[in-house]
Amino acid sequence: MLKPRSLIAGLSPYRSPIISRDGLSLDLNESMAGCSQRVLARLRSLSASELSLYPQREIGERIVANFLGVAPEQLLLTNGMDEALSLLFTAYLGAIGNDGNELLFADPTFVMYPMLGEALGARMLRVQSGEDLALPVADMLAGISARTRLVAIANPNNPTGLKAARADLLMIAQSAPDAAVLIDEAYYEFCGETLVDALAQHPNLFVARTFSKAYGLAGLRLGVLIGAAQQIEYMRRISVPFNVNSVALACLEAALEDQAFVQEHVAQVKEGREGLQQLCGELGLRFWPSQTNFVLVRVGSTAKTFVESMQRRGIVVRDATANPGCDGCVRITVGTPSQMDGVLRAIRDVVAKML
User: Fold this and answer.
1) Domain locations in the chain as residue ranges
2) Counting CB atoms within 10 angstroms of each CB, which of 15, 57, 134, 183 has the fewest?
3) Rounded CA gap, 142 and 100, in Å?
């Protein structure tokens, strides 16, 4: 009987986290503003030949590299950030044996890190954040050893929305010169701080970005992995040549050109985020000051009831209690200004009925 590798057979399946598309989906940190009208216009202009020919990823990489101010050789476009993570983890984990095959990360964080590490047979070194859920820098530094092959840090973090200090991140990269250090900047546009400018000084540093959040292109699956040219070349050796589809590549330039759209969307998210956090404070709910397009809120032992009550009102939010350190928490994506008026009313109503 055909059997997969034992590591794969023992994994728990990772299924789509989509609960429902009925109502307002504030559970996956998607853009509720949609995408730029320039992107839609480009979509409508696609010709038959643009869809029938294989895509040229390199053209898109030159466009993004110019936008980011790096060389095209330092950058790889991927099928969403998920593929960028998969390539990076595959390149540096699983090849040296258990004694030198360690993945270091802090809980809570993005679920893909341990999932990919387990699939590659890496030894997990989980560092638990404290009650404040901030990045435990001292414990991360203490966890670095000769066994460390990859350090994964989401900044700002998901599901907490918290941002680590630049100096702390660079200290971690400097302290692990023989390990790949990933800084996952999926929510960069909402916080405005990046380590792309530090890549030249740290050849083991990688930065990942996505067009799914601020650009509203989650459905097109477009991610970016940036690092030292020599290291990115290793990613190219294991990446399939046509991994990014023609539709995504065709819309890429239009998306980057419309920075006015991105800036307006980010400004609206920040305003909505502030309103949501202010309401949580008024209601006596613990929340973590966010630098993303969502807010993590502790509603207590009634988290499941809160999620169900919001869903009955046509609003889907994320139950975050499964994340280490997030007992009783829910994660709420910030919608558009008109949507947030109804969201805040619903939260106030649900909390009043739960007390």
Assistant:
1) 18-33+260-354, 37-257
2) 15
3) 16
